[in-house]
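hiii so um. not sure if this is the right channel but i have a protein structure encoded as tokens and i wanna go backwards to a sequence. like what aa goes where. can anyone help
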């Protein structure tokens, strides 16, 4: 029986094996042998995940492809991975990305002590992120989409792909609206226009959110406070809470703002129908330089173009 902090892992899932379900991957912990956690990692079709070379938490981390067609990318070079091939991530000096051409299954072997703690933390944060999205009438795929596109835009802009940056982007985009927990539901779900007073309360989800992540039980989450706080700032300085302008706004927050706005426009909500992708792109273009950072909008539109304007 796997144990962590005197708790049985079986406490965490109905099936008995602890499971982490994200939109791109599903990970099932099988057990611990000789200090290594063994896990089955299913990568869904047309999805990807990344392994960060300088992730100092795990000294041993390898991926064995059991089934499916997978391409790996290292340093801009892409190649097909063989069935049975062992990729020892700890030996790589660069970030390695795995792309599922079909659904694929890996056996993951990784330092147990650190991974089990990480896994439980991820389970907890994932659950919390899903609760936040539900508050606003989305499903959890919303936060996962925003995370994926935020990271893609970041990479497209040639920003550093180190672990720390990617962790900040991931959890900053997942938790950008955590402050909505502090907003009364009658304001959050009000179908009509908000009064001035209600709008002031609504705007406080940025500063309240930053406070929540700073005080979060998962200590390192405090590092994403700047993204949470700045995701409604506007490029021309007319946003909130501080009216920051241009480069005063963190690039991470500028990216989340564009991707979040796009996802909101293209998703059916209780009070409005979704726009088409083309119309939403026009809205982004219209907001270039006023609401949105122009280079972020350009990068995002290029990525959408590459995906032939497929979204979701
Ligand atoms: Fe927000």
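sure thing!! here u go:
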């Amino acid at each position: 029986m796997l144990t962590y902090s005197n708790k049985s892992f079986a406490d965490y899932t109905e099936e008995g094996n602890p499971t982490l379900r994200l939109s791109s991957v599903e990970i099932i912990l099988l057990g611990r042998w000789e200090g290594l956690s063994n896990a089955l990692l299913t990568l869904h079709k047309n999805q990807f995940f990344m392994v960060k070379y300088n992730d100092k938490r795990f000294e041993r981390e390898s991926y064995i492809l059991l089934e499916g067609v997978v391409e790996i990318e290292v340093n801009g070079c892409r190649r097909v991975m063989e069935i049975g091939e062992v990729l020892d991530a700890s030996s790589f000096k660069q970030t390695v990305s795995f792309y599922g051409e079909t659904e694929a299954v890996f056996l993951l072997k990784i330092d147990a002590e650190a991974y089990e703690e990480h896994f439980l933390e991820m389970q907890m944060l994932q659950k919390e992120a899903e609760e936040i999205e539900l508050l606003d009438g989305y499903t959890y795929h919303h936060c996962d989409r925003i995370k994926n596109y935020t990271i893609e835009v970041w990479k497209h802009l040639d920003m550093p792909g180190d672990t720390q940056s990617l962790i900040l982007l991931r959890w900053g985009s997942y938790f950008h609206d955590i402050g909505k927990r502090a907003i009364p539901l009658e304001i959050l779900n009000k179908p009509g226009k908000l009064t001035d007073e209600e709008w002031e309360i609504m705007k406080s989800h940025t500063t309240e959110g930053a406070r929540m992540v700073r005080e979060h039980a998962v200590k390192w989450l405090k590092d994403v406070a700047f993204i949470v706080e700045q995701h409604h700032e506007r490029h021309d300085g007319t946003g909130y809470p501080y009216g920051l302008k241009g480069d005063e706004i963190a690039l991470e927050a500028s990216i989340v703002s564009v991707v979040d706005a796009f996802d909101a426009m293209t998703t059916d909500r209780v009070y409005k129908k979704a726009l088409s992708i083309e119309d939403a792109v026009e809205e982004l273009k219209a907001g270039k330089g006023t609401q949105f950072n122009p280079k972020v909008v350009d990068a995002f539109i290029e990525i959408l173009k590459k995906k032939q304007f497929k979204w979701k």
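oh and Residues 1-14 have pLDDT under 50 and may be disordered.
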